[in-house]
Specification:
heterodimer, A: alpha+beta, Thrombin, subunit H, 2 domains, seven-stranded antiparallel sheet, 6 helices, B: 325 residues, five-stranded antiparallel sheet
Chain lengths: 408, 325
């Protein structure tokens, strides 16, 4: 092992850049037949023998379709290295790739414990394919109401910088660029997640598991944990009209409410109050496929002057619109299969639909929607979606959801 | 000699008014007004042909050296007097005549069938107007039930006028078709029948929907019922339309009706199968809800509902292998 040459503190971006630029790479996914780059991102060396960290989503095309693509890493001196994928963490959007090297300088990884809100940190990468850049910014703690806990970074992260390191002023990696919400709000994967992946990788180097199988295993483990954390939490309930409904399932599934506006000039014929709880994050599988998400929605409708037939039409409009929030294509999922029925106490028309994941058998997207059917003056629509869950896990959620006596 | 001369005109359709009974030893045909049979065709000579008894007492047609000649049914020119058989067709100039003897057999009289009775009722203007009012009311009711916001009368009136014009087009086409065949248009009867069947169809479709709400969208029995009723309804519509447009109920009528019904069905089926061949990203289930007063159901407790979901997981898992082939 070679001790990184620049262990002395560099306090301004210029110094940081000149010291560490040689550890940065642009990661390219090249389409074989056209020999053109299909995706670009950034990466950084984390071991002397050529191990490079990047985002899973940067190399996802190659992982999903290795016969059509190959990977390259371009060093800051424009040297092209061909790379292989060593390990991935699809849940936290991380990947380790390797090129052949010996005794090359690399970046040290540091945990995030020492950081405080307001600390200056430096994001590096290759924004919009314009060349290597350093972006000074501020550490702003972890994202709230989040399951996968990202670092909230104030500073401009642009596409192409994905997978690039974020370092402190000692040149230690404390995060990995992953996403932006625009307006100087960026998100970083914490270095702890990268350390976890690195440790796992080093402890079973000979594990030659196929990448699809690895993704499958990670998704299964994650949904189990996610559902466990959701079900262990005490669901907070609240009154919505005559019904008591879930107001918060878990801190990482925040809720939003809305109520139809009362207009003074026109007579309203009905009133709608809705509550929607949705996890903000989804797991990236490929450009057309996301998963790993829980969402719940309630609508309370009060009839003011609609006829019974009109009111049932109104309930039908809400009942009929159920769809999944996650993107998926024909190659990723099957069509839905549904079970339609009537449930009693309170009486509801309910439908439960599932679609299976083609490449990850045993995982499903699930939709449930129901509407009350025994009142002309009031109604409740209940709806949830689960993406990427196992049959048993989904059924546990369904049971918990249905057991809330929402009608008094 | 007594003969019946039919001026066939163009086309093959008979017109009762064009049948003439003439008698005499000598029956003259031509454009001049002193003829027994007067043809207005300018290709016919003033004294074009004559029918006389031959040596054997049978009627014969002589061409009188006309400019354009006389021909038999096969367009062969008549150079010599031609012995007439009952029902023979001749071409005089460019006009067609057919000659019958008084003992020529006629087709058996057609009994007034139930459709005829129906057609009689359908031609009564009061009934036609009642049906029309019913259709408009039904349309208004459907409009009103699905309008959840403000009910705008101006818009309703205009869409209803549009609706009326649209549904009138169908009987207008059939009436025009009948006129084209130089038959009675029978517009009112066509109108009444078409609108009545439209109303029956609309009511039937909402009934199917209502049953589907209770049985679920995958009921095969209901699908079968839907197709059977659709076939019956279309066959009724085309059958009556054709009858009113002058097709007597016989083999030909049956074949036309079957042909039109099949065409309409295949259009319907093609549309449905084009839609269903697309990959569906959203679930397909029965989406309409009915008021409590018309909802009949036996509700399950949540445990049996949860248990029943196993089947949907099973079905989805099976689709993985089925679709990827």
């Amino acid at each position: 092992m070679v001790v990184p040459s620049a262990s002395l503190a560099a306090t301004n971006p210029q110094q940081l850049f000149s010291t560490y630029a040689d550890r940065l790479f642009q990661i390219r996914v090249i389409e074989k037949s056209s020999q053109r780059k299909s995706t670009i991102g950034s990466g950084f060396q984390i071991s002397a023998n050529g191990l490079v960290a990047t985002n899973y989503h940067v190399i996802s095309k190659y992982v999903q379709d290795p016969d059509r693509y190959f990977l390259q890493a371009i060093s800051s001196k424009d040297k092209i290295e061909s790379v292989t994928v060593e390990d991935i963490d699809v849940v936290h959007d991380l990947a380790l790739v390797r090129f052949k090297a010996k005794n090359r300088p690399f970046l040290k990884i540091r945990d995030t414990k020492s950081l405080r809100k307001g600390d200056p940190i430096y994001s590096m990468g290759n924004p919009l394919d314009l060349g290597t850049a350093v972006v000074p910014g501020t550490y702003n703690g972890f994202t709230k109401q989040s399951y996968y806990q990202l670092i909230h970074f104030t500073g401009a992260i642009n596409s192409g910088m994905s997978g690039g390191p974020v370092i402190n002023n000692k040149g230690e990696v404390i995060g990995v660029n992953v996403a932006t919400a625009g307006n100087q709000v960026g998100f970083l994967i914490t270095s702890d997640k990268l350390l976890n992946l690195l440790n796992k990788y080093r402890s079973n180097q000979n594990n030659k598991m196929d990448f699809q199988k690895r993704i499958h295993k990670q998704l299964v483990a994650n949904q189990k944990k996610l559902m466990g954390d959701t079900l262990v939490a005490k669901w907070k309930t609240v009154k919505l009209g005559d019904a008591s409904i879930v107001n918060e399932l878990a801190p990482f599934i925040p809720c939003w409410g809305d109520k139809s506006r009362k207009r003074k000039t026109k007579k309203e014929k009905y009133l709608v109050v809705s509550i929607q709880c949705r996890q903000k994050e989804q797991i990236y599988i490929n450009s057309g496929f996301r998963t790993g998400n829980i969402g719940v929605q309630y609508k309370w409708i009060e009839n003011i002057s609609l006829t019974p037939l009109q009111f049932s039409q109104l309930l039908g409009n809400s009942y009929s619109g159920a769809s999944m929030p996650n993107r998926a294509t024909e190659t990723d999922v099957t069509e839905f299969s549904c079970h339609e029925s009537f449930i009693k106490d309170p009486d509801e028309r309910a439908v439960f639909c599932t679609r299976a994941y083609r490449k990850y058998p045993g995982l499903y997207d699930v939709i449930y929607v129901s509407t009350s059917i025994n009142h002309n003056d009031k109604g409740l629509i209940r709806h949830f979606t689960l993406s990427g869950f196992e049959q048993n896990t989904a059924k546990r959620f369904l049971k918990r959801f249905l057991e809330i006596r929402e009608w008094n | 000699m007594e003969l019946i001369i039919e001026q066939a005109g163009r086309g093959s359709h008979r017109h009762a008014a064009d049948m003439q009974k003439v008698s005499g030893d000598k029956i003259t045909i031509g454009r001049a007004f002193d003829n027994d049979i007067i043809l207005t065709d300018p290709h016919v000579c003033p004294h074009h042909a004559v029918i006389e008894s031959g040596v054997d007492g049978r009627a014969q047609l002589h061409d009188l050296n006309s400019v354009n000649g006389s021909y038999d049914a096969n367009h062969a020119p008549l150079y010599q007097p031609h012995t007439i058989s009952s029902g023979d067709t001749y071409i005089i100039g460019r006009s067609r005549i057919r000659i019958y003897f008084p003992d020529h057999p006629v087709e058996e009289s057609i009994k007034v069938n139930p459709v005829e009775k129906l057609a009689k009722y359908a031609s009564i203007p009061t009934i036609a107007i009642s049906v029309l009012v019913l259709a408009v009311l039904l349309n208004l009711f459907i409009d009103y039930s699905s309008t959840l916001g403000e009910f705008k009368f101006g818009r309703i009136i205009i869409t209803n006028i549009g609706f009326l014009l649209a549904i009138t087009l169908w009987p207008v086409c059939w009436a025009m078709f009948a006129r084209f065949r130089k038959l009675e248009a029978k517009f009112i009867a066509q109108f009444t029948v078409s609108i009545t069947l439209l109303i029956i169809g609309t009511v039937f479709l909402s009934m199917i929907d209502w049953i589907e709400f209770h049985l679920g969208i995958n009921s095969t029995g209901l699908k079968l019922f839907y197709w059977l009723f659709t076939i019956l309804l279309l066959a009724c519509l085309f059958g009556i339309n054709l009858y009113l447009a002058g097709f007597q109920i016989n083999r030909k009528h049956f074949l036309y009706t079957a042909g039109l019904t099949l065409t309409a069905l295949s259009f319907n089926y093609t549309l449905i199968s084009i839609d269903s061949s697309d990959f569906k990203y959203s679930p397909v289930y029965h989406k309409k809800i009915y008021p409590p007063s018309v909802t009949l159901y036996s509700a399950h407790d949540i445990h049996s509902f949860i248990k029943a979901t196993d089947k949907t997981f099973e079905k989805s898992a099976k689709l993985i292998n089925k679709d990827s082939d």
